[in-house]
């Protein structure tokens, strides 16, 4: 992709209302633009990152045997009256024609439960798991922290349906493993911890996935032995690790990057959703829900992977694999060399962003590359002669390589 | 994909409120489920079709050099006050915290115009085109015709920005061509016509793309010579072809499957969005918008490509390329043969849906395959012995082929 033709404008300064590092750097780097507090536009560069995160999540959900579908934002309010969630402060109300009352879904239990009721009748139809990647709407009193806590935000939500708690247990554990695979692929695995949280009426615990981060709005208490944590609700009741009893838990700030929750029969009973067993006896379906927000994950990555110059994207989610910066492009030989390197890399099927702009200074271009944060930077200039200067965004040293060496490096 | 493990339930009867062929067949086939009037869930099979349509559109928009981005559904009402669209009956109002007034975007001019204003300053930044594939919300008094006219529906909307009407013209024509490429790829090209419609204050005409269909809610008047049409607004003023003057126009029912519209400076002036020319003089930016709804295209395809047994998907958008139906699977040899054919086709990277269910009769399975409408049906049964029965959904005759011939056919 030629940067001169790409719709991206970076900025040296962040908008006054950017209240967090992720809002500042993502806005300055041309990834997002705030529409209003808690609502963001994803610009082309930002959509590339968001899509890569969504695809990693999608692959791991599909590997679990879950089926992707798509539910609407708009739903009749009656569905929320059935579950008693119609008076939640964070539920957005929408007025339809002829006094019809709608809401914007804040999660999708009220949609998926009656929907599965039309498709699941007997034990032979269970277990089944479905998920979607869609936007949620929450009337937050105070939206904050950039794309970490929004009024409209992207969410992967999965729902699983089972004949019994025991049947649910096996799947619930597999989802835990799938979530850690996702965090590993997002380069968050080594600082993300399974965290015990309140379980509601159907189980002792639910589970959060908390990523250590100094600016996180949550506090967790970590057991170094078991590498699990408890959240601040749980620590009030039991000041010890739920797995080994260790009482020396360490307090950390963290960002909640996922949660999984046994719903039990809370929603199936509200909608009278039951299945028949081998003897034709009816039982309420046992449910669980599993959330993981791609846009929040994107904000978390920026909070963790940045320096004073800009973002440092992990490879799996970077908008491009390579940022080729052309300097002295008004010199014919240099321009030819830079375009040649660009073509060679493109032929290898590697995503390369080529700063071919003629109206930006070398200093601007290099600062721009640091801000955008693509993992590998290549510079072609008069000074590099027939070589290419190679620098990783997360390292200080540079190397000079031949074109052939560069091609081998990027296609490795 | 094994049908026994897939989340799809077909039905012999349509729900009472299914008011159109597309609602009936898409619901019966397990593609969609109505949430409320004008709002649909896309089930796994339906999401596969919708995604294929979206990707065809995406490829042709990218080929135009347009940049994909993603705008929100929720927007501050002030933006619509600036353009005078805040009192439209079909605009959904949403109440925020502390008396904040939001709306759900019915199109995105009020979002994209101020957004581009932050990125476009001079003639050097123009022309530029951006698009998104996102849901729109319209408070329709009467939602109808299944997924053809909804309250929440999927839309590709592109916006282009230019220094002058003349500069816009060239791009506008390229978009016309791109739209016809899309309709060709959707197998709608031969019955879709460029249709002259009212242009608003900035040009004599806008353009609709109308697909001939007896149940369409629009009426168009077609010139057989030029293969263009005029819509019913235009025919009141001029009873002739705008291209050749032909007065013998033929009346047809049609579905509007796209529209492109010169916005001129209507929105740029509302937001005071101007660019500076070579002499540093400021001018309002000239804009156009280009809509094409993937979910409406999906409904249109069903209205056109079906028979009394079910849907007949065109190959490019079919949920799977091949429907393999296993019959007599309780006979070991037959089951082995069917699974062998399934594996051979999968190895070729072809999407195959394998009806491996043991609790459905042969009649049910064949009726089910006709309803779902995958283009190529393969049957393996006792009767086919070591051969496979091959039938195209849009043809009556069947052939017996060897496994090797089948593999060659599906991977051609």
Structural account:
The structure is a homodimer of 412-residue chains. Chain A has 412 residues and is an alpha+beta fold. Chain A folds into two domains: 305 residues, Bira Bifunctional Protein, Domain 2 (BirA Bifunctional Protein, domain 2); 91 residues, 3-Layer(aba) Sandwich (Rossmann fold), CATH 3.40.50.800. Chain A is 29% helix and 30% strand. In chain A, the strands form six sheets. A five-stranded mixed barrel of chain A has the order 9-10-13-11-12. In chain A, strands 20-19-21-22-23 form a five-stranded mixed β-sheet, sandwiched between helices. In chain A, a hairpin with a 7-residue loop joins β21 and β22. In chain A, α1 packs across α8. At the A-B interface, β1, β2, α2, β3 and β4 of A face β1, β2, α2, β3 and β4 of B.
Secondary structure topology:
The structure is a homodimer of 412-residue chains.
Chain A: H1 21-28, E1 32-36, E2 39-42, H2 44-63, E3 67-68, E4 74-76, H3 78-83, E5 92-95, E6 101-104, H4 109-117, E7 128-137, E8 152-162, H5 165-185, E9 192-198, E10 205-212, E11 218-223, E12 228-231, H6 232-237, E13 250-264, H7 266-270, E14 274-276, E15 282-284, E16 286-292, H8 294-304, E17 306-307, E18 310-311, E19 322-326, H9 332-347, E20 352-355, H10 362-372, E21 376-380, E22 388-392, E23 398-401, H11 403-410
Parallel strand pairs in A: 3-7, 9-12, 19-20, 19-21
Antiparallel strand pairs in A: 1-2, 4-6, 5-6, 7-8, 8-16, 9-10, 10-13, 11-12, 11-13, 13-16, 14-15, 17-18, 21-22, 22-23
Helix pairs in contact in A: 1-8, 2-5, 2-8
């Amino acid at each position: 992709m030629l940067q001169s033709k790409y719709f991206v404008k970076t900025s040296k300064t962040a908008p006054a209302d950017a209240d967090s590092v992720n809002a500042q750097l993502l806005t300055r780097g041309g990834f997002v633009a705030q529409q209003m507090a808690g609502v963001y536009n994803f610009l082309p560069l930002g959509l590339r990152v968001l899509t890569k995160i969504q695809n990693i999540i999608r692959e791991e959900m599909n590997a679990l045997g879950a089926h992707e579908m798509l539910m609407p934002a708009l739903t009749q309010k009656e569905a929320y009256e059935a579950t008693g969630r119609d008076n939640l402060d964070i539920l957005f109300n929408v007025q339809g024609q002829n006094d019809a009352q709608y809401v914007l879904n804040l999660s999708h239990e009220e949609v998926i439960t009656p929907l599965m009721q039309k498709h699941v009748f007997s034990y032979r139809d269970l277990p089944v798991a479905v998920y979607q990647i869609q936007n949620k709407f929450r009337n937050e009193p105070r939206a904050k922290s950039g794309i970490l806590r929004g009024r409209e935000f992207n969410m992967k939500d999965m729902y699983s349906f089972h004949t019994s708690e025991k049947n649910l247990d096996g799947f619930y554990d597999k989802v835990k493993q799938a979530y850690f695979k996702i965090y590993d692929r997002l380069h968050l695995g080594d600082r993300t911890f399974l965290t015990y949280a309140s379980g509601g009426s159907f189980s002792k615990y639910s589970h959060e996935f908390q990523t250590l981060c100094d600016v996180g709005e949550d506090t967790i208490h970590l057991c170094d032995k078991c590498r699990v944590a408890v959240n601040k609700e749980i620590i009030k009741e039991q000041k010890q690790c739920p797995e080994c009893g260790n009482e020396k838990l360490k307090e950390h700030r963290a960002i909640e990057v996922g949660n999984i929750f046994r719903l039990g029969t809370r929603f199936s009973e509200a909608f009278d959703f039951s299945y028949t067993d081998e003897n034709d006896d009816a039982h309420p379906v046992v449910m669980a829900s599993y959330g993981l927000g791609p846009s929040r994950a994107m904000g978390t990555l920026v909070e963790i992977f940045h320096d004073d110059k800009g973002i440092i994207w992990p490879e799996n989610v970077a908008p491009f694999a390579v940022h080729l910066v052309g300097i002295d492009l008004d010199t014919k030989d240099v321009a030819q060399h830079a375009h040649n390197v660009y073509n060679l890399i493109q032929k290898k099927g590697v995503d390369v962003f080529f700063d071919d702009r003629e109206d930006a200074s070398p200093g601007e271009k290099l600062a721009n590359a640091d801000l955008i944060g693509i993992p590998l930077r290549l510079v072609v200039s008069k000074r590099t002669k027939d070589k290419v200067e190679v620098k990783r965004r997360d390292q200080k040293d540079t190397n000079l390589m031949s074109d052939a060496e560069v091609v081998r490096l990027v296609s490795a």
